[in-house]
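hey so u asked for the seq, here:
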Amino acid sequence: MPCRILCLHGMGINSQIFASQTESFRSLLPSDYDFTFVDGPTACMPEVAIAKVYPGPYLCWYRTPTTESVTAAHRHVKSIMAEKGPFDAIMGFSQGAAVAVSMILRHQLETPSTPPLFKFAILIGSPLPFSHSLMYGIDTRDYFGVSCNVDCSVLARYNRPNKVPTYLITPDRYLKNDGDEDFHRTEEACQQPTAAIFYQMFHSTSDEVRMDIPTVHIFGRRDPWYLHSKDVLRLACAERASVLEHCYGHEVPRQLSEEICDLIESAFALVEI
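ran it, C-alpha cells below
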C-alpha cells in the first residue's frame, strides 16, 4: 500500500536541505513510501552552521508565529496539498513540525466530524505550535514584547490564559522581544498598521484538543527545544504516540536511522489496522 508523505522543512533551510537531512532513514524504507518536499513561502536568515554547509535559499513558514502568520502558513500548505496531494501523512522538522501540529489541531477543532487531515504524523524536534485563532492557546504577546495595542476586550471574551510555564521560555528566536514592529507582521498586514497582533500558543494545560492520529515524536535531550518537544507529546493521543528520545541536539539523528524507520512503519501499520 503506497504512503505519500508531505514534508515541511524547518526555519532557515529549504526543501532540498530537509531532503538531505532525512535521506539516511528514507533510504531504508520500502519504495512505496513517497516523500514530497516543499518550500516555505518566506525568506529568512539561516543558522551559521547551515549556511556553511548548504546553499540557499533559506526559507521559513513564517518569521514569527502571530495568528495572522500562522493562518497564512496554513493557507500556503493547503494550496500545496490541493496541487500536489492527496497525502497520507505529514513529516515536519522544527518549525515545519509546529506548522503540521497546528494544522492537525485546527482541522480537528473546526471539523471534528470529518476524516483527519492526515492519517499519521512524523514530528522531529518540534517546538510548541501556535494557533490561527484567539479561541485557543495561551496568549503569549508579553513574551514576544508586544503590547496590547487594541481594546483588550477583543481577547478577553475568549478568557485565554496568559502565563507560559517558565521552563519553556528559553530560545530567543521563538519567544522574542524585537524592536522592529514589522517583525511581528506579515507583508500584507503591514498595509494595515492599526490591526492587532496576537500570539496564541497551543499547550496541553490550556487546550483539551489532542491529535487523534498516530504520531511519531523524535527529539534530543541537547536540543534547546527539548522541553517544547516533550510538551508537544502531551498534545498527542498517548495510546497512539511513539517516541524516540535521543542524546543529540536540534537535528535529524542520522545515527538512529533504523530506529526512525521502525517508528514510521509502526505508525503506518496502525493506520492500516
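The longest strand covers residues 3-8. Helices lie at 15-26, 48-53, 67-84, 95-110, 153-156, 226-233, 257-272.
lmk if thats what u needed
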